[in-house]
Amino acid sequence: MTSYQTAVLGNGLRIIALPTSSPVVYCGYQINAGTANELPDEEGIAHFCEHVTFKGTARRTALDVINCLEQVGGDLNAFTTKTDTVYYSAILKDYLPRAIDLLTDIVFHSVYPQKEIDKEVEVICDEIESYNDSPAELIYDDFENLVFHGHPLGHNILGKADRIRKFTTEDALRFTHRHYRPENAVFFAYGDIDFDSLLRLLEKENGTKVTKVGEMDKPDATVLPALNGYEPQTVRADKHTHQAHVMIGNRAYCVHDRRRMALYLLNNILGGPGMSARLNLALRERCGLVYTVESSMVSYSSAGIWSIYFGCDADDMDECMRLVRAELDRFMSVPLTADELSVAKQQIKGQIGIACDNRENLALDFGKGFLHYGWKKDITALYRDIDAITADEVQAVACDLFPEERLTKLIYA
After folding, report:
1. Which end of the chain, C or N, has fewer beta carbons within 10 A?
2. Which UniProt keywords apply (predicted)?
């Protein structure tokens, strides 16, 4: 793989590019501003700003923004997570200057006109209501709010409709002036690009010169409010759904914790995307009790979360819980054999390699790592870390996270 190229502008904007032979360029701004950065009275504002950033700048109307890249067949998109907001495009390389001009304009020069907000806010509220109608999705946010209760990491990304309807131009400007700053962002690019030409385009659009090319200091760690103590709990909510929806999980490891890699492997064996995942075999293939069962993990800079989700007939819920508990107990009591560990490593490395063939996801992934940690995604190094995981480390993680008394449970029934 071609090496990453990096630089920084005088305004603090960091740049990372990965040249390839593809004529399609994926590029954009990743901003260190997600729901975890919201103040107590701002829940939902990060996602709100993502929507209304497209509604006009000092020199473009909302329609101008829509048409700018679509006229040449390009895509313009955005999304918000717990830790960042991303604005990006997919464009033929000949139109890269157009994409950079548009992206820079909307990220740093949007004006958030109230008349556009008044229209868009109902679109956002419709998105919230459609999400509320999808219990298999809603339960993830509600579960995180239980595990990180009282902390911004527990904020629902979409927020609540009654609060969203009160946000104004001034609210959007206040949040974006606080966070949408060049020194709090990176620009990433992946495709058939000349790095020097890319730097000249970014210098022009940002009105500042490159101050350094090559290796640079890692960014300062994002400072979030201190986490509250974790209190496991069981919560039942009546959502009037046909199925019972269940989540079981625990706080887990931050991105800097060396145990994270062992959990990464363990989670994939337990409930990863493969049909051979142990929970899928136990609940679906052998018993036919569920359509979906999966486990997931997310690691943030200061904390992490691990969870299991399944949906089933209400009458089958207790049996599903028993089967899940049996699989967790097995990991705690019986270490993986050498063959099981080898197959698990081979499987997850294959999944990583295939995932990296999705160029859009790879671009977004290396941009995020560079934004938060100054990392340059290195698949070979990741494979080495996976190969170094031992059966004892996997069992130790299971014994730390899986005990019944440490688990939070959320049940929609």
Report:
1. N
2. Hydrolase, Protease
